Request: fold
Amino acid sequence: MQNRIVHLIDADPSETRINVEGWIRTKRDSKNFCFFEINDGSCLKNLQVILDKSTSELSEVITHISTGASVTFTGILVESPGKNQKVELQAEDVILHGEAPADTYPLQKKRHSLEFLREIAHLRPRTNTISAVARVRNSLSFAIHSYFQEKEFIYVHTPIVSASDAEGAGEMFQVTTLPLDDIPKDNGVVDYSKDFFGKPANLTVSGQLEAEIYAMALKNVYTFGPTFRAENSNTARHLAEFWMIEPEMAFCTLEGDMAVAEEFLKYIFNYVLNHCEADMAFFNKWVQKGVADGLKEVVDKPFIHLPYTDAIKELTSTKKEFEFPVSWGADLQSEHEKFLTEEVFKAPVIVTDYPKEIKAFYMKLNDDEKTVRAMDVLVPRLGEIIGGSEREYRYDVLTRRLDELGLDPKDYWWYLDLRKYGSVPHAGFGLGFDRVVQYVTGMQNIRDVIPFPRTVHNAEF
Reply:
């Protein structure tokens, strides 16, 4: 582990013999020597390795080493006379673990389209772009856990299989063991008593409702896990399987929710800027100019708080023409959100108090009976990055909201119990992890920031 390339490229030359393991990126032959670039995924840069071909045994092995092959070099780290690296490995021995024949290995030394790389998701982590995404994704994951642990939140594992639709949208993946070619029925209706769980069950769209259970006992909790939506959207922003971060805080109002959301985003963005400098420089050069500076602005600028009604006024008073019409009661589209953050305020914006008709049943109803204590955090270049709310903790109001939306209170009996026994004001938010990785890296398609994308008609690997 101590010989990862990320530690060697800036190390001082040493007379100690070391082993370096990895995959060949390039190979260049000369009469007496062979030059290799090796990478082990620990950083963007490769380590140059020089091997003397005069030894007959090594000369034979070298002929089988090509781009993509896995090897272990043994040698001494020496000062490099070249301009592109501080040190290089003067190899004395090499072990070839696995060949990668040049006539069939698809990742030769050239630029490959991201569309092509999606077709070989089992090999694409070996490219500069996808390996850099993986390292940033790892750092963001660590930062998220670090933030909540430092703030003494409790990490809760919520179930993947659920009998409740947390969002009320109905776009859920059903889970069943019933034989699809001979579904048991009772008076023409599916007999779920014969199913594994004895009732309709689905993959979860959110861990929020279960997180609220633990918030009512542990005060501040968070979830970080996979969620699923059977949304037939074949776009660069949608996945069927994606990861969500959902903190939930008891004795917390919307104001506290907004404060945590702002502090949280600034923390994780700052962490990436400080710990992934080389990868962020790569994204800035090859993916999206100014991406790191954009993150720095989010970290440095205070977030603007803007009621939904005022946001509509800003949007309707401009002469700018939008693709989607703006009116009170309509949800904000990405173009509206970007206009507010990039042209009106030139800063992140938290829009609050949305019409109840466009928000979920569990959001606290305002005194006007028209709006709810919801909030969306909008950032330049993306639009909405966080959605959250103060939760409806009043039993009578919550049951009325369920009825209004046609949701069966029996399916939420335990959720209603939380309002019967020791209910308190509480709030939380949801952050789509993969969309955050997309935002941080500047990648244009969300399928390129998750290792194995699950989308409409696509469940490979």
In short: The chain has a mean pLDDT of 94.
